[in-house]
């Protein structure tokens, strides 16, 4: 019994190792052939280690769909034009199970086993950190779509690019909007992860330098299930507005508990939450009037060759996936589009040439706006919109003329809704 | 010269008083029997002496050393070894490793270690069981293994908690001989035993525990004759069954577990 | 003063949510010496079931509660009878591992079934509260506390006075005595797991009413149940209530005095201290 | 028997050392991860498998190693090697000192205390900016994948060697005795507190060593990731599948789970986690003693007066 069990185990291990090594070696030869152009069969492969399961599965899916939409459109339109020849694109996804260590090993797997030399990032800053490390070691470009932590770009890496602005810039537009509505005092609450801390600090600094009175600021642990006592405390300070920087479920929690505790604000804004369709579904009418910092909305007046207008992007997305896109998907599509532009500009899928092309994109206009690719790979100049939940839908209320869409600021008290 | 002194020892479990104001002392080199009906507190007493539990009140001296508050392993290293009524052997170790570990812990090394282990295993008649895992030993082997393991501590005082239960008559005779031999080596022993034949044949003195108090203390013959003891303990059972208690009598539930 | 009273009240009401979530966990641990690492995912699954019943049939979660309870009772019974019983008498690691595997399967199964999107059980009263004596009593939290008290009482009566309850209690003292009493241990275990799955489902519905949830949200719930169970004492009917109240109030007060970022230090530091000083919990049986 | 083991060990060593020559960077990456988990599982095996204390918080030491090494090297500009050594020593001392009170707990209570330890440590790290706070710490990108493979492999080999030496010493028997019956161990003069705490400290040293290397290998330390309870669970799963208490068990377990994870991720996009979960359940039901573990013998398994729970707390 014991002998046979042991024997079976060793056989099992041997078989698995062989499978792995064979698949690894087998494709490493193709990798050798394709390394120069990465395009042997008229297809350019792009790798994306992205969460399909685990705690980031939700955002991972949005990013996945954003990448996929770009791929499908490019292929429908005949492919990328590389030196006059058309190449189809093929994005190879691998599920990193939301685990940063897996993000790295899958990037390695895609590089070595699948011979892939161009990458789009997983969602969330920790996963981007570890995946870009592998890309940097192999000197292949990776465009990050799902994390704007400044520290990703201050490491001196040469092969990391992004479609996201710095997290610290997220709240600027929201505060500009609040200023026009006569909001003077603000309470800040934020989660303890990298993104939330940076976004909050950027927001608080912006608020102070623009004449707001920051009456309360506190950090809570991610995934908290109760913030009633913080709201009770905040109510004592009677701030005009509440700005929450955290995760979706914490934004929902803050709205629920504000109402339960009957803590009223003239305005409530979050970095993550209101832009997602499930925010309105989850909170029903209690979500009405809540503001969300966003990176993109379908109403923005930008357009490009692949997706057309922002509105058209939303239409295409809805046709493909059955739901309205939110900014996670759009920014992912933009990242993929940057990759495509760089390949066409470089006239090659060679990773070094694509990297150089990315670094020299300069100021470009896509369906998500006009921005400049900086020397460290980050982007600047993107005008961030603000959305407001109206009838369960995210409506663009900033910048500029969109402010005429703004309703109910100051918000009616909870008991008058 | 007394080797063990118990002074006014009491033990409560929750609200239940299990031992009440026990005092006695053991002379060096003597063999003392400890008897009493099930639940009288015998195992609790042994457990307190061995450091497995702390008394609620009272003091324990081993030679001049006060044992209160000392951890069990320290007491063992002082030369006070014990066995357990419900056997406790190292089930993941072989029989000889059980003994070897005890001997090694107490300072035996190298060749001396192996010689001593072999001697103890032979002494407890377990030579044919070396290499058998502890968990695969029969109950009577486990009882003997506990004894061998305790002897590996080079003890001055041995607390034996029902080491003979479950032995057949010829095994019993050899066990009694073994205890006699240990006694000749100068080891003091406190022996808990249900088998009156054993107690009578090896003890210099017998202590009787009843409902947590010490009700008699004297030479075996005197104890058997004591009416108080007969009433409390022997009257019901010993008289009825002069051959001793049935070996298959269910072992008492250990207090405090 | 009013501020502090409201904060303590917040803590007490949060204690209700914490306690009701730990009720099942404590029962499983106390009776079967089983740590159910899939506990949180059971609750999330119940929240999804309540959500589906609400959206498809318009069934209010509180009306659906008996139904969900029965579904989970049956499911739990079968799960224990078919799978967990096979390993429960073996090594302690194995049950841990099994429930960990179950958790993995459940969480990923829910992703396939409901997507990874955040959902909530959204009723008109979910975000409302009663205003009494100048204090805010959020309806869901207040009901959670009331339910917790009632369920604890019912559980206590059941374990103390019913035949089945006494069988469960006898089994919790150890399998050997129970076997001697002629009890069929696998059945008692299956019943206990069924009952506690039902209780977990009730806790899950309350969680779904008070928070947004996704398939991955089970982990923190399991950890929370750990803490509450230890604080209150393993395997006592009133332990979850006491543990929940202690943790709720301490976190509420601590998060205001020190800041909410220190809540986890308070929670887990307290857990460690309690474990070291009094491992049987506040209501637990005295140390052996 | 001994010779066969020697030949086998030599063969494994040879394959592992030559692996990089035969294969590519991806296999090296997987090999590094497997070596990392083998070392972690071997560390867990010391306290969980051999001593019988089901730790659910060994990730504490992995995390501490990574966090402290990162903090020293970034904030105090220490050489990473020095920072790593100090971090490992601190983690070891932390394990020893915390072991003293925590190892008094048995069974589930010990599991939960160690889980709480990991969570409490994470909570402290999140609130101390020197340790990276909630933002984590970035480290410079140094070394090559090959170097990290050999370092991780070296640590795995070291932990196997440590396990081997312990298992074949009286100290190992001491730990096994504690696992069997702690009161009996005390009764033969074993200082159980010291023996257990030492085992916990050794476990901590190995875990921290892996953490130190992991941090510089990944070049970014994200506190929630390095204190993730799932890492402890993986150590436990690997050890149990391979065979708890054995020298080769944790390594075999790490290889199997490592390969299985990679294959699942390579061949299935959505169901890889589901497959892993089902795999665990199947192993528990059909391989409860692990592959290399000793079979539970029929005799003596049930003794009167004893619970059938082997580790009831």
Topology:
The complex is a heterotetramer of chains A (417), B (257), C (288) and D (313).
Chain A: H1 2-34, E1 43-50, H2 57-76, E2 80-82, E3 85-95, H3 100-112, E4 119-120, H4 125-138, E5 142-144, E6 160-162, H5 172-180, E7 185-191, H6 194-209, E8 213-220, H7 228-237, E9 241-245, H8 248-260, E10 267-270, H9 277-283, E11 291-293, E12 303-304, E13 308-309, H10 310-321, H11 327-346, H12 351-359, E14 363-366, E15 369-373, E16 379-380, E17 386-390, E18 393-398
Parallel strand pairs in A: 1-3, 4-5, 5-6, 7-8, 7-9, 9-10, 10-11
Antiparallel strand pairs in A: 2-3, 11-17, 12-13, 14-15, 15-16, 17-18
Chain B: E1 2-13, E2 16-27, E3 31-35, H1 42-49, E4 57-62, E5 65-66, H2 72-77, E6 80-82, H3 95-105, H4 110-123, H5 139-151, E7 157-161, H6 169-184, E8 188-192, H7 196-202, E9 205-210, E10 213-218, H8 220-225, H9 227-237
Parallel strand pairs in B: 3-8, 3-9, 6-7, 7-8
Antiparallel strand pairs in B: 1-2, 1-4, 4-5, 9-10
Chain C: H1 2-32, H2 39-57, H3 61-88, H4 92-114, E1 129-132, E2 135-138, H5 139-161, H6 163-172, H7 175-180, H8 185-210, H9 218-232, H10 239-257, H11 263-277
Antiparallel strand pairs in C: 1-2
Helix pairs in contact in C: 1-5, 1-8, 1-9, 1-10, 2-3, 2-4, 2-8, 2-9, 3-8, 5-6, 6-8, 9-10, 10-11
Describe the protein in words.
The complex is a heterotetramer of chains A (417), B (257), C (288) and D (313). Chain A folds into two domains: 32-165 and 301-380, Response regulator (Rossmann fold, 3-Layer(aba) Sandwich), CATH 3.40.50.2300; 169-294 and 385-416, Rossmann fold (3-Layer(aba) Sandwich). Chain A has twelve helices and 18 strands. Chain A has helices at residues 2-34, 57-76, 100-112, 125-138, 172-180, 194-209, 228-237, 248-260, 277-283, 310-321, 327-346, 351-359, and strands at residues 43-50, 80-82, 85-95, 119-120, 142-144, 160-162, 185-191, 213-220, 241-245, 267-270, 291-293, 303-304, 308-309, 363-366, 369-373, 379-380, 386-390, 393-398. Chain A has a seven-stranded mixed sheet, sandwiched between helices. Chain C has one domain (2-116, 125-159, 186-277). Chain C contains eleven helices and two strands. In chain C, a hairpin with a 2-residue loop joins strand 1 and strand 2. The radius of gyration of chain C is 19 Å and the shape is globular. The mean pLDDT of chain C is 87. Chain D has one domain. Chain D contains 13 helices and two strands. Chain D is globular. The chains are: A alpha/beta (417), B alpha/beta (257), C mainly alpha (288), D mainly alpha (313). Chains in contact: A-C, A-D, B-D, C-D. At the A-D interface, helix 1, strand 3, helix 3, helix 4 and helix 6 of A face helix 2, helix 5, helix 12 and helix 13 of D.
């Amino acid at each position: 019994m014991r002998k046979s069990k042991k024997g079976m185990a060793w056989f099992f291990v041997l078989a698995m190792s062989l499978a792995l090594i064979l698949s690894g070696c087998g494709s490493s030869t193709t990798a050798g052939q394709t390394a120069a152009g990465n395009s042997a069969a008229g297809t350019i492969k792009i790798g994306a280690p992205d969460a399909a399961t685990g705690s980031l599965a939700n955002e991972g899916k949005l990013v996945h769909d954003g990448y996929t939409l770009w791929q499908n459109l490019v292929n429908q339109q005949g492919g990328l034009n590389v030196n006059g020849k058309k190449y189809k694109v093929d994005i190879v996804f691998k599920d990193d199970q939301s685990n940063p260590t897996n993000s790295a090993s899958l990037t390695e797997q895609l590089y070595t086993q699948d011979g892939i030399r161009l990458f789009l990032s997983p969602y969330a800053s920790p996963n981007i950190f570890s995946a870009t490390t592998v890309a940097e070691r192999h000197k292949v470009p990776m465009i990050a779509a799902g994390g704007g932590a400044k520290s990703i770009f201050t490491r001196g890496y040469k092969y990391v690019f992004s479609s996201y602005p710095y997290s610290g810039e997220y709240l600027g537009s929201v505060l500009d909007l609040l200023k026009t509505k006569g909001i003077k005092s603000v309470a800040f609450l934020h989660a303890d992860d990298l993104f939330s801390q940076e976004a909050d600090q950027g927001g608080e600094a912006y608020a102070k330098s623009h004449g707001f009175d920051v009456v309360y600021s506190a950090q809570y642990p991610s995934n908290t299930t109760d913030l009633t006592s913080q709201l009770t405390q905040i109510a004592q300070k009677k701030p005009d507005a509440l700005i929450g920087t955290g995760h979706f479920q914490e934004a929902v929690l803050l709205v629920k508990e504000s109402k339960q505790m009957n803590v009223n604000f003239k305005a409530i804004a979050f970095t993550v939450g209101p832009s997602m369709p499930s925010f309105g579904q989850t909170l029903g009418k209690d979500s009405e009037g809540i503001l969300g910092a966003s990176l993109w909305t379908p109403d923005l007046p930008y357009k490009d060759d692949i997706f057309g207008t922002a509105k058209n992007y939303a239409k295409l997305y809805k046709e493909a996936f059955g739901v309205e896109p939110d900014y996670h998907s759009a920014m992912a599509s933009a990242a993929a589009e940057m990759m495509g532009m760089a390949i066409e500009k470089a006239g090659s899928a060679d990773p070094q040439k694509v990297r150089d092309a990315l670094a020299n994109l300069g100021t470009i206009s896509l369906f998500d706006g006009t921005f400049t690719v900086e020397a460290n790979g980050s982007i600047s100049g993107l005008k961030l919109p603000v959305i407001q939940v109206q009838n369960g839908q995210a409506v663009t209320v900033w910048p500029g003329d969109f402010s005429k869409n703004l309703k109910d600021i100051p918000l009616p008290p909870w008991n008058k809704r | 010269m007394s080797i063990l002194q118990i002074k006014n020892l009491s033990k409560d479990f929750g609200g239940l008083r299990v031992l009440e104001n026990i005092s006695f002392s053991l002379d060096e080199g003597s063999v003392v029997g400890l008897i009493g009906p099930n639940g009288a507190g015998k195992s609790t007493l042994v457990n307190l002496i061995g450091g497995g539990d702390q008394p609620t009140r009272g003091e324990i001296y081993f030679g001049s050393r006060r044992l209160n508050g000392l951890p069990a392993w320290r007491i063992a290293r002082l030369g006070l070894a014990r066995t357990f009524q419900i056997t406790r052997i190292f089930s993941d170790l072989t029989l000889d490793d059980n003994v070897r570990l005890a001997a090694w812990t107490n300072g035996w090394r190298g060749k001396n270690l192996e010689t001593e282990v072999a001697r103890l295993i032979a002494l407890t008649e377990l030579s044919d069981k070396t290499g058998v895992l502890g968990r695969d030993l029969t109950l009577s082997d486990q009882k003997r293994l506990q004894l061998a393991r305790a002897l590996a501590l080079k003890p001055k005082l041995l607390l034996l908690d029902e080491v003979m239960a479950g032995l057949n008559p010829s095994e019993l005779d050899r066990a009694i001989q073994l205890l006699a031999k240990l006694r000749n080596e100068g080891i003091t022993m406190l022996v808990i035993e249900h088998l009156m034949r054993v107690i009578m044949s090896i003890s210099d003195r017998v202590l009787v525990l009843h409902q947590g108090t010490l009700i008699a203390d004297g030479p075996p013959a005197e104890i058997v004759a004591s009416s108080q003891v007969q009433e409390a303990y022997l009257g019901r059972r010993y008289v009825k069954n002069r051959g001793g208690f049935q070996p298959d009598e269910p072992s008492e539930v250990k207090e405090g577990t | 003063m009013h501020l502090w009273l409201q904060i303590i009240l917040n803590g007490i009401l949060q204690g209700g949510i914490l306690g009701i979530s730990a009720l099942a966990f404590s029962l499983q641990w106390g009776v079967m010496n089983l740590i159910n690492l899939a506990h949180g995912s059971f609750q999330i699954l119940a929240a999804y079931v309540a959500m589906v019943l609400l959206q498809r049939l318009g069934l209010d979660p509180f009306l659906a509660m008996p139904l969900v309870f029965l579904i989970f009772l049956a499911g739990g019974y079968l799960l224990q009878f078919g799978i967990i019983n096979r390993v429960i008498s073996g090594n302690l690691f194995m049950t841990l591992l099994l429930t960990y595997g179950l958790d993995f399967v459940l969480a990923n199964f829910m992703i396939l079934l409901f997507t990874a999107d955040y959902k909530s059980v959204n009723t008109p009263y979910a975000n409302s509260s009663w205003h009494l004596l100048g204090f805010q009593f959020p309806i869901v939290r207040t009901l959670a506390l009331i339910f917790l008290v009632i369920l604890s009482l019912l559980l206590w009566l059941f374990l103390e006075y019913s035949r089945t309850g006494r069988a469960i209690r006898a089994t919790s003292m150890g399998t050997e005595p129970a076997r001697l009493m002629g009890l069929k241990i696998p059945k008692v275990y299956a019943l206990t797991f069924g009952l506690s799955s039902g209780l977990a489902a009730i806790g899950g519905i309350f969680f779904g009413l008070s928070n947004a949830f996704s398939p991955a949200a089970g982990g923190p719930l399991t950890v929370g149940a750990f803490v509450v169970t230890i604080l209150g004492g393993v395997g006592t009917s009133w332990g979850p209530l006491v543990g929940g109240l202690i943790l709720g109030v301490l976190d509420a007060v601590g998060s205001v005095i020190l800041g909410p970022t220190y809540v986890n230090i308070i929670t887990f530091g307290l857990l460690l201290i309690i474990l070291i000083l009094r491992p049987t919990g506040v209501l637990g049986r005295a140390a052996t | 028997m001994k010779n066969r083991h020697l030949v086998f060990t030599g063969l494994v060593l040879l394959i592992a050392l030559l692996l990089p020559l035969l294969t590519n960077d991806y296999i090296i990456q997987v090999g590094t991860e497997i070596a990392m988990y083998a070392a972690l599982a071997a560390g867990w095996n010391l306290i969980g498998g051999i001593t019988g204390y089901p730790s659910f918080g060994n990730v504490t030491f992995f995390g501490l190693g990574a966090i402290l090494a990162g903090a020293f090297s970034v904030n105090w500009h220490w050489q990473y090697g020095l920072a790593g050594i100090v971090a490992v020593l601190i983690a070891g001392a932390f394990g020893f000192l915390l072991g003293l009170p925590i190892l008094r707990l048995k069974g589930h209570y010990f599991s939960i205390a160690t889980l709480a330890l990991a969570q409490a440590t994470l909570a402290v790290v999140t609130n101390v900016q020197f340790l990276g706070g909630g933002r984590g710490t970035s480290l410079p990108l140094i070394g090559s994948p090959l170097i990290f493979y050999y370092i991780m492999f070296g640590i795995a080999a070291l932990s196997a060697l440590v396990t081997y030496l312990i298992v074949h010493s009286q100290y190992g028997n001491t730990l096994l005795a504690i696992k069997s019956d702690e009161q009996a161990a005390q009764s033969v003069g074993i200082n159980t507190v010291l023996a257990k705490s030492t085992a916990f400290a050794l476990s901590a040293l190995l875990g921290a060593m892996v953490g130190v290397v992991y941090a510089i290998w990944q070049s970014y330390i994200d506190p929630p990731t390095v204190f993730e309870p799932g890492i402890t669970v993986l150590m436990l799963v690997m050890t149990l599948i391979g065979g708890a208490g054995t020298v080769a068990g944790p390594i075999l377990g790490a290889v199997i789970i490592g390969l299985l994870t990679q294959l699942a991720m390579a061949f299935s996009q959505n169901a890889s986690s589901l497959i892993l979960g089902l795999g665990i359940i199947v192993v528990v039901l059909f391989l409860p003693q692990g592959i290399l573990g000793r079979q539970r013998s029929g005799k003596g398994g049930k003794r009167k007066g004893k619970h059938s729970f082997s580790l009831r707390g």
